[in-house]
Amino acid sequence: xxxxxxxxxILVVLVIVLVAVSYLLPRQVTVARSITIDxxxxxxxxxxxxxxxxxxxxxxxxxxxxxxxxxxxxxxxxGSKLVWTSDHPxxxxxxxEIVESVENQKVVTALDFGAQGTAMAAFNLVxxxxxxxxxxxxxxxxxMNPIGRYMGLMMDRWxxxxxxxxxxxxxxxxxxx
Length: 177
Known about the structure:
Blueprint lengths: L1 H21 L5 E10 L3 H8 L2 H4 L13 E5 L8 E5 L8 E9 L3 E7 L5 E11 L2 E11 L4 H7 L2 H22 L1
Antiparallel strand pairs: 1-7, 2-3, 3-4, 4-5, 5-6, 6-7
Helix pairs in contact: 1-4
C-alpha cells in the first residue's frame, strides 16, 4: 500500500512539473521554408495567389484522391477561399482564405483547422536576376494549453517537410512552364 501511495505522489509531482514546464515553452510557433525558382516573380505569384492553382502543387491534397474541395470567392487574390473535407488523417478538414495579396510580392492566408486551431500562412517573393526566392511560412498561437505547447515543439518537424515538398512541387511546376 505504501508503494502505491508513493507511486501516486511521484505521478502527481511529475504531472505538475510537466504542466509547469509547458508554460515556459513558446506560445507562438513559426515554421518557414524557402526555395529559389528559376522564373520571374509574376510566374510564381500566379501559382500562389489562387487556391485552385495551389491545388496543383499542394503537398497534402495528393495524399487523398477522395478529398472534397469547395472553392468560393474569386479565383485569385483576396477573398479566394478553399474548404476541404477528408477522412485521411494527414489531410483532415479545414478552410483557407486569402486575406492579403500584394502583386508579385506577398500572399497571406488564414487557415482554420476546426478543433485543431487556426494559423496564418504567407508566401513572400523576392525576385533577383530573373529568379524568385519564395518563403512559405506558418505562424500559430498554441495558446495556454500545456499539450498544445509541447506539440508546438514538433511543428517544424511535422510541417517543415511538407513545406519543402510543396515548394519543390511549385518549383517544378513553374520551371516547366
